[in-house]
Amino acid sequence: MGGRDKAFAAVGGEPIAVRTVRLFRALFPQVIVATHRPERFRGLGVQTVADRYPGCGPLAGIHAGLLGSHHPHAFVAACDMPGLDGDVIRFLLARIGAADAIVPCWDGDVEPLHAVYAVRLASDMETSLRAGRYALRDFLDTITVDYVTETELRGVRRVAASLTNVNTPEELAAVGGHFEEP
Length: 182
Fold this sequence. Notes:
Blueprint: E1 10-11, E2 14-15, H1 16-27, E3 32-34, E4 47-49, H2 58-68, E5 73-77, H3 86-93, E6 101-106, E7 109-110, E8 114-118, H4 122-130, H5 136-140, E9 145-148, H6 150-153, H7 159-162, H8 169-174, E10 177-178
Parallel strand pairs: 3-4, 6-9
Antiparallel strand pairs: 1-2, 1-10, 5-8, 6-7, 6-8
Helix pairs in contact: 2-4
């Protein structure tokens, strides 16, 4: 995105971050944003946490969020998912059981940044981060994951939109988005 903050790209006339925070407030008693730029989120009235292992990718962000959680599980989403849907999230939350994580599979791939993680994983994540193993997908191979199949997900309305992320200007434009700031 040319160095621009994807969380603040506007889709439907509203920054993705603003829409996401509003949705999460309706769903969860605690909303945490893992960010290296907390000042960007001050006006949203959310708790922010910084990575304890900066520059180590999404695993470090999830780790920081889990450390800040007051609840046994956390739903984790990437900052660039403009179509997050409460029904899809509730579907995943309803599967909470003995597994360490609940991760959807979509379009032949896993979606670890639209998933539920047990807070008890924070220490295992820290061990991985300290050992220089930063890949979230590799971490998933070391825990018990309830992978939600695409077949199971197809029965949930708006699942494709909820799992869509925007990584390029073309993908952002495809969902009707743009950057409002210069």
